[in-house]
Each structure stands twice: as C-alpha cells, then as structure tokens.
Design goal:
Layout lengths: L4 E4 L6 E6 L3 H22 L6 H8 L5 H7 L5 E8 L2 E9 L11
Antiparallel strand pairs: 1-2, 2-3, 3-4
Helix pairs in contact: 1-2, 1-3
Length: about 110
C-alpha cells in the first residue's frame, strides 16, 4: 500500500510516512501511542486536582489495539499511523460528520 504522505528529511536520510492503520500491529502501535498520551495528560492535570483515573476513563478509554481497531473499523472512521523510518511516531483519527438522525444534546 502506498503511503498517503511521505516526507524525506532535509538530509535525505529520514522518511516520514502516514498510512491508514490496517493490521493488528498497526492498531497495537496506535493504542500504545494513545496510552502514552493518556499518561502525559493525567500527569499534566494532576496539579489541578484531577485524578488520573478520571482522565483515563473520560478521555482515553481505549486501552488495547483491539479497542482501537473496533472503534475505527467502520467505513466512516479511520485511524492514521505516522512512522519515522518505519518506527511508529504518531497517530491521528478521522470520523465522518454526524448523520441526519443523530441525537445531539447540549
């Protein structure tokens, strides 16, 4: 599969690629990156009296690759995985707009 985005560094010696997550290995890598973000997030808000458990439960509930895969296996959702020289370096997700029948509450 071709990468959606490939960038070569100024020196020409490092490659950044961004591709949709497809395999269990991809989703495990994305889950690991999400867990790391969750840890950072919990540490950042701790001085403000917010518990790590609350931050994790509300903002970072997906703990495994299979959790992430289940969330983004739908046609209207996609997880992207960025790699530098083949090593997972970041991820991003996209979800399509709400349908007409969605129940939105404020």
């Amino acid at each position: 599969m071709l990468a959606l985005l490939q960038i070569t560094g100024d020196r020409g010696d490092e490659m950044i690629s961004v591709m949709p997550a497809r395999s269990a290995r991809d989703f495990d890598a994305a889950a690991d990156l999400c867990r790391r973000l969750g840890q950072w997030d919990a540490e950042a808000v701790a001085p403000h009296g917010v518990s790590a458990a609350d931050v994790t439960a509300i903002f970072h509930p997906d703990r495994s690759g299979s959790d992430v895969a289940a969330k983004y296996e739908h046609p209207d959702a996609m997880m992207f995985l960025a790699r530098v020289e083949g090593v997972p370096a970041g991820c991003a997700h996209a979800i399509a707009a709400l349908t007409r029948n969605a129940d939105v509450r404020s």
